Amino acid sequence: MKPYWEKLKDPRWQRKRLEVMQRDDFKCVWCKSDDSELHVHHGFYRRGAEPWEHDDGELWTLCRKCHDHATQLDECMRSVIGRMRPSQIYILFFIVAAFKRHIQKIDVDPADFGEWADAFDPFIQSLPQFESEIVNMLNKGRIN
Questions:
Q1: Given 24, 81, 96, 116, which residue has the most CB atoms within 10 angstroms?
Q2: How far is 22 from 40, CA to CA, in rounded Å?
Q3: Residue 137, CB-side half-sphere exposure with 13 Å CA sphere
């Protein structure tokens, strides 16, 4: 089996990488830089999938600085989740899925953290309505 860095030289990855960069107008989707070294970031890795087998929606163009930051955030999230109990992970997943539905209803600039904070506030205020649903799942044994 080839090491990962060799797979990134594969023409199928190079083609996919170029398609993603073209889709993103050769700009970092986080900071909008168009004059920095660009990388194509995998939002996550699917077990057994080659780098070029990921859906376009799982891939983003990031400059080196933002790619390093995204990698650090990923490591941090894995560390936090790795220390959680299964019931906590399930509740976290439920909250993240609800937030994803929330932000799909509004237009938020991915690079504008102020807009994210503004979008997050009404979501946080809506969380109490989910509490009863989570408690029901706990009572039905769907969450340990």
A1: 24
A2: 11
A3: 13
Residues 6+ apart with CB under 8 A from 65: 31, 33, 36
Per-residue pLDDT tens over the stretch 34-51 = 999 999 999 888 888 999
- Tens digit of each residue's pLDDT (9 = 90 or more) over 42-92: 988 888 899 999 999 899 999 999 999 999 988 988 888 888 888 788 778
Domains recognised in the chain with CATH numbers? 1-83 (3.40.1800), 84-144 (no CATH)
Reading the block at residue 127, the tokens are: 């969380």
Whose structure tokens read 């299964």? 86
Q: Report the distance separating Cα 129 and Cα 102, nearest Å.
A: 14
